Amino acid sequence: MLYPQEFDVIVVGGGHAGTEAALAAARMGCATLLLTHNIETLGQMSCNPSIGGIGKGHLVKEVDALGGAMALATDEGGIQFRILNSSKGPAVRATRAQADRILYKAAIRRMLENQPNLWLFQQAVDDLMVEGDRVVGAVTQVGIRFRSRTVVLTAGTFLDGKIHVGLNNYAAGRAGDPPAVSLSARLKELKLPQGRLKTGTPPRIDGRTIDWSKCTEQPGDGVRGGMNPDLPVPVFSFMGNTAMHPRQIPCWITHTNQRTHDIIRSGFDRSPMFTGKIEGVGPRYCPSVEDKINRFADKDSHQIFLEPEGLTTHEVYPNGISTSLPFDIQYDLVRSMAGLENAHILRPGYAIEYDYFDPRSLKASFETKQIQGLFFAGQINGTTGYEEAAAQGLFAGLNAALQCQGKDAWLPRRDEAYLGVLVDDLVTQGVTEPYRMFTSRAEFRLQLREDNADMRLTEQGRVMGLVDDARWDAFSRKRDAVSRETERLKSTWVNPRILEAAESERVLGKAIEREYNLFDLLRRPGVSYPDLMGMGEGRWAPATKADDADARPVVSRETLGELHDAVVEQVEIAAKYSGYIDRQKDEVERAAHYEHLKLPPDLDYAQVTALSFEARQKLAKHRPETLGQASRISGITPASISLLMIHLKKGG
Ligand code: FAD
């Protein structure tokens, strides 16, 4: 049957990429259909019930700044929040939350069901409708044909998915879900370059069978006994608040020991990884426990976090023992650890192998180079992680919508967003193992902080139609307050005649010898915004340097009202890091010189004989869209870029 309604955007898959893609396209006014295996599993966390962390939290904040769902759903579902790296610089500080997976899923589903322009439909997609070199829709398992102008494919780990537990294996998309076999075959037929990757998950444990007294408690931030008890409980979304959080509960820590390691080693001969049953490459930064024991043989213990899966379940996720060893080994290794001697395993751990598609075959908008209107996002592009998937989903969804609206693609730069780094890394360098985000991947990370994601992106999101009125109003108030306060500090001068030496010494460590504005004082190490607030009340020099007659009060909590914390954070970071930030801006400008220089799509690299044979081959294979992309292809040297630039200048 041909479904009577035609859509602008069809999104296949209701995971983290698919839900953000569908919400984004619908927010932008496109008639959007989300086709997924099972409506009950919309927004399901396949693995670890946690969101955020270093690099990942940055992506979540960017998704949020563009009106996405992940941060708000985490605020509604988060049962423990922490700021990682809280004692380090603001660029690497990151929010991480433990989520109640049921509450999280419920929040995502509610947002989807209440989103105008969005239709949900439960069916497996088995085929894509392609006319010439353009996708025109999708066909489901029972033969329903849905026509659309664009399709965003976000099939996660499901394409020809195969689960391994020891030497046993079976076809599945993840435990309890069917694989997407027909769709995988169809994509192979379309000759889209693909490969196999793998990922794994630990066995889950019934918390009632854990002896918690033998484990170490780890409360979240803002909670007595936690790492940062004096901080407020963190909030993920720029629109969130602590009142949205459910009850907060702790995680726990136990450890592996020599006996655990011996048990693990005794299963190596039945490990699908070590016996060659699994061909796909796994995530280096999230290795299985057998991989850790094998690679770091000299370590006699590893920390294992026992993370509750929710407030209404006893299920516990033991973070650190992802494994595909046979079940008897899993049983023994779990029970060898302190507190887990009588643990009951609720679900076995497993590894899953699946198809991914080489992201170098995507344009910078995530549209496939081969088939117009077909976009890929999420794990299918060789990444791992909910946050990476959500960011890509939002990106592909908004670009599919822009295409339907006849507009140019939105391509954030590497100095503008982690999203820009993620997309650029994928389309220019591809992946050799599941890709995850780290702050170290961003060369301009001082600018790409969690705290300023809204300042970087919300205005662009508003222009595209992604940001609703409530978010826009809140953002505008904050932006204006930050700019007003920065100006005020810059134009408020402290004069040694007015500021008593004793007071100056108390706050600044020494008496000031000349006039300074407050912004400059704030730049000094050890001087904080509250220090300035409490200093010299009623004795400030006036706004202009020339006129020092009219003393004005210092700013107070009341002056900035509810925006106080957010404004102070921005003003303080701008002052403290202004030197570094300015230097980084200069670097960005220098790089921009060639970053956006377009390379003709039909450029015949074989004719650029000044380039080495290897460089010509690589450029012809990857066909970068800009000189900036070309510079990031492995093996393309700065010298090759100069030669290419000369060739372009000559009109080549
Ligand atoms: P998914 O979340 O996999 O969602 C895919 C969606 O598409 C599902 O709703 C599915 O039903 C639907 N779908 C697929 N094919 C079709 C079709 N043909 N028709 C209709 N619907 C379809 N990440 C980490 O960061 N760390 C980890 O340690 C980690 N371990 C993992 C372990 C396992 C076993 C698994 C399965 C995943 C793991 N992940 C891990 C990865 C994480 O789950 C994914 O990165 C993330 O969920 C990817 O999001 P996605 O939206 O791309 O795909």
Short description:
Helices cover 34% and strands 17% of the residues. It is of the alpha+beta class and 652 residues long. Residues 537-557 have low confidence and may be disordered.
Description:
NAD(+) binds at residues 282-296. Its main location: cytoplasm. Homodimer. Heterotetramer of two MnmE and two MnmG subunits. By secondary structure, the chain is an alpha+beta fold. The chain is 34% helix and 17% strand. It is built from 21 helices and 22 strands. The strands form 5 sheets. Strands 1, 2, 6, 7, 8, 9 and 20 form a 7-stranded mixed β-sheet that branches. It has a 6-stranded antiparallel β-sheet with strand order 14-15-16-17-13-18, with no helix packed on it. Strand 1 (7-12), helix 1 (16-27) and strand 2 (32-36) form a beta-alpha-beta unit. Helix 2 runs parallel beside helix 9 (386-404), helix 6 packs antiparallel against helix 8 (327-335) and helix 12 (469-490) packs across helix 17. The longest helix has 22 residues, at 469-490. The two termini are 51 Å apart. Residues 537-557 have low confidence and may be disordered. The protein binds flavin-adenine dinucleotide (FAD). The site of flavin-adenine dinucleotide has 38 residues, from helix 1, strand 2, strand 12 and helix 9.
Q: Measured on Cα atoms, how large is the radius of gyration?
A: 27 Å
| Overall 3D form | globular
- Helix amount, in percent? 25-40%
Major beta sheet summary = 7 strands, mixed
Gap from first CA to last CA: 51 Å
Number of helices: 21
Look at the structure and give the mean pLDDT: 90
Q: Give the distinct bound molecules.
A: flavin-adenine dinucleotide
- In total, how many beta strands? 22
The unreliable regions are 537-557
* Helix-and-strand structural type: alpha+beta
Q: How large is the share of residues in beta strands?
A: 15-25%
